[in-house]
TrEMBL record:
Belongs to the ScpB family. It comes from Thermobrachium celere DSM 8682. The keyword Lipid biosynthesis does not apply. Residues 40-67 form a coiled coil. It comes from the Bacteria. HAMAP family: ScpB (MF_01804). GO terms for cellular component: cytoplasm. GO terms for biological process: cell division; chromosome separation; DNA replication. Participates in chromosomal partition during cell division. May act via the formation of a condensin-like complex containing Smc and ScpA that pull DNA away from mid-cell into both cell halves. Its main location: cytoplasm. It is found in: Cytoplasm. InterPro entries: ScpB_csome_segregation, WH-like_DNA-bd_sf, WH_DNA-bd_sf. Keywords: Cell cycle, Cell division, Chromosome partition, Coiled coil, Cytoplasm. This is Segregation and condensation protein B. The gene is scpB. The lineage of its organism: Bacteria, Bacillati, Bacillota, Clostridia, Eubacteriales.
């Protein structure tokens, strides 16, 4: 990496292009998301400079003729294919037949996303029905995970969303969830 330091010292634009190439290579090989801080260490630049280069690289990918995009979530970054090319990718990669989430699973996922960390009993109380099956489905799909245990009688499991949840819905972090609007039926009836 001494040649990267040399180019950086000279302040040449080749430095940015070379770093972009290194970033692409690392992201391609890793396949999954990588912490931005870890990537900065690998490339041997500070996080602030890396974020500028990632923004520039992302703009390069936004051009119409490019097939990739940069996805950022939970301070991680990952290379992904553009959604509009999914039909071509499906021709070569036969995805496992995944069924859509049931209404119960979607309700459960929404409750977990907005109330996390949350226990199964709390989820059941909000939904008004048992959520065992929905929770198991969401765990199997990797959209939620066990995040510890509540320090109370029985030590119930706490659930929270995963990075897979963020990637699936296109959020950088959980703070990007749309604002929750609680319905007050009594006020509506008046």
């Amino acid at each position: 990496m001494a040649d990267v330091d040399f180019l950086r010292d000279l302040g040449l634009s080749e430095n940015t292009d070379r770093i972009k190439g290194i970033i692409e290579s690392v992201l391609f090989v890793v396949g999954d998301g990588i912490e931005i801080k870890e990537l900065a260490n690998i490339v041997e630049i500070d996080v602030k400079e890396l974020k500028k280069i990632l923004k520039d690289l992302s703009e390069d990918y936004e051009k119409e003729n490019r097939g990739l995009i940069l996805v950022e979530y939970n301070n991680k970054v990952q290379l992904a294919t553009k959604p509009e090319y999914s039909s071509y990718i499906k021709k070569i990669i036969k995805p496992e037949s995944k069924q859509n989430l049931s209404q119960a699973a979607i309700e459960t996922l929404a409750i977990i996303a907005y109330k996390q960390p949350i226990t199964k009993v709390e989820i059941d109380e909000i939904r008004g029905v048992r959520s065992d099956r929905a929770i198991n489905t969401l765990l199997e799909r990797g959209l939620i995970k066990e995040s510890g245990r509540l320090e109370t009688t029985g030590r119930p499991i706490l659930y929270c969303t995963t990075d897979e949840f963020l990637k699936y819905f296109g959020f950088k972090n959980i703070n990007e969830l749309p604002e929750l609007i609680e319905l007050n039926l009594e006020n509506e009836e008046e």
